[in-house]
Amino acid sequence: MIERLRSLLPRTPTVVHECRQCGRTVEESTDSCPACGARNIASYAVE
Ligand SMILES: [Zn+2]
Questions:
Q1: Neighbours of ion ligand 1 (CB under 5 A)
Q2: How many folded domains does the chain comprise?
Q3: How far is CA 34 from each of CA 12, 37, 42, rounded to the nearest angstrom?
Q4: 17 Cα: distance to centroid of ligand 1 (angstroms)
């Protein structure tokens, strides 16, 4: 039942990548922050 409902509502999960140091949102493939150079990128899913 639940599976059927899910297939009716195709949802693409949005993943946000953000610098932990300055909070800037960066591209998915970004390794280091373009703003501050930190290699500390956090990734989390938003709905
Ligand atoms: Zn940064």
A1: 19, 21-22, 24, 33, 35-36, 38
A2: 1
A3: 26, 6, 14
A4: 11
